[in-house]
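debug: dumping io for the single-chain case to check the tokenizer round-trip. Nothing else runs in this session.
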Amino acid sequence: MRLLVIGDVGGHHERLRQLLVDAGADPEGATLPPETHVVQVGDLIDRGPDSAACVALVDRFVASGAAWTQLLGNHEGNRIGGRRFWDEPLDAAALETLQRWWRTGQAKLAVALRTREMGDVLVTHAGLVAQLWVMMGRPDCVGAADRLNQAVGRDPELAFSSGVLLAGGVAGPAWADAARELYPSWISTELVPFGQVHGHSPVVAWPTGRAVRSVPWRLRRRLRPDPERQHSRIDIGGRPFVCVDPGLGFTPTAEHRLVPLQLTGEVIVTDE
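debug: decoded output
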């Protein structure tokens, strides 16, 4: 199966729509090509020109039963029980959709993928820090996704714990800062059980391809930028950590790209 992991959209509806068209999807009819599964890592909304249209587009796929896994980011969390940090108007219908996704579990906090290219990887908005993994009982990739998704609709404090960015304790999967929390937490552990794919906090400034200032010097030499897709990768403990946030939510230019991470494999689900 072709797996397409889409990074932070940040209210840029036309870029998201064009990405889907280029991938062979029909945004109006909410259909995907055969043997294709889409994962969008959250932060559909805010900063960009049309957050409501982004939510409506994705909801068509979610409601149709298409092979689409929608994850929740900190900007969605801002509207559905997480700590308030962003004040931007959002269309009432879009807000109700986000709240429904949270109540019904139509959106998730995590998904586990088994891939040909990177083995088992956990996909979340911001990444699972090692401290939270230990607190959860050191689960495998599937167990970590299951445990995180148990918080959907029930436990916004776990889902949207803000960590260093808002001085909120151990960072949750929608808030971990890659340079200061996610990557350092795993470098200091003896075991890295699975790889991760995340958005939220680019460690490379696009389109320049340079490491952002918050990346410690010990990590910079490990970074592998992908300028064509505007993704970056760092291997820790023999496992890949890939950031798919192109930085559209900051000061996007025509050179910023929204390109999916394309993998081959399957979504791992349990029998529960």
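debug: round-trip ok. The mean pLDDT is 94.
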